[in-house]
Amino acid sequence: xxxxxxxxxxxxxxxxxxxxxxxxxxxxxxxxxxxxxxxxxxxxxxxxxxxxxxxxxxxxxxxxxxxxxxxxxxxxxxxxxxxxxxxxxxxxxxxxxxxxxxxxxxxxxxxxxxxxxxxxxxxxxxxxxxxxxxxxxxxxxxxxxxxxxxxxxxxxxxxxxxxxxxxxxxxxxxxxxxxxxxxxxxxxxxxxxxxxxxxxxxxxxxxxxxxxxxxxxxxxxxxxxxxxxxxxxxxxxxxxxxxxxxxxxxxxxxxxxxxxxxxxxxxxxxxxxxxxx
Length: 277
Ligand code: NAP
Prior knowledge:
The chain is an alpha/beta fold.
């Protein structure tokens, strides 16, 4: 693969200062001796199209897209993968040699890889998954779980209509419960996923009662600040196998880095340490 002399990539969002992606990609660039750079870019919605169209002309090979542009970027890309269409959002753009902008969503891939690494005993077909939350991240999680062969998804969201929309998009394997009854979904689930922002530093705590959790159930949280949320802490005390959300962030970055820079990076202890630095 022939790269520009100094290939550039980056992440576009607003705000962007909190993003761990520059540390992560910077670590990989250094590890693999690639003479490139990965840059955080705070871009307003009104400038998004102009900025993205300009980047390939400046030596950019691609970018990650984060909040609030993940949905809007679908209309800017020339080619959008089926999974990004199904999820309704993209987090990775590849600037192709023919000038076309290719959009993909790697969040579901990152979620599954993190789960497989953190809970190697997890068998997707073993039983239903309970998903708390129905925002953008939940769409990626549900698409990947259904694709992996999970027989049924129990879904609950504070705003029920959002969960119903997911059911209508993803089909009859998704069953919706009221938020006040979300605790009842846990008893029969082999996997429980928090996709809400509850438990994140500065946000509220998860109030869903967790006493229905069985020992051995795999419990994962997309929130990774703090790494061990109260949700994961309670699940651990109840004998569940817990997986934190940082690995999802690390793994979702792998396909983009490989497409942009031609090397598939390893997610290892050093990668985790670099992202936490
Ligand atoms: P989003 O589209 O804004 O959705 C937020 C979700 O949280 C919705 O389900 C929302 O419910 C729920 N929620 C927010 N406040 C709540 C409250 N007080 N009570 C009950 N539910 C509440 O955000 P997103 O993009 O899906 O992201 C969700 C979380 O996942 C964030 O913390 C994000 O950082 C994290 N995330 C992590 C990764 C990773 O790589 N680990 C990747 C993507 C996202 P309503 O619909 O009722 O508002």
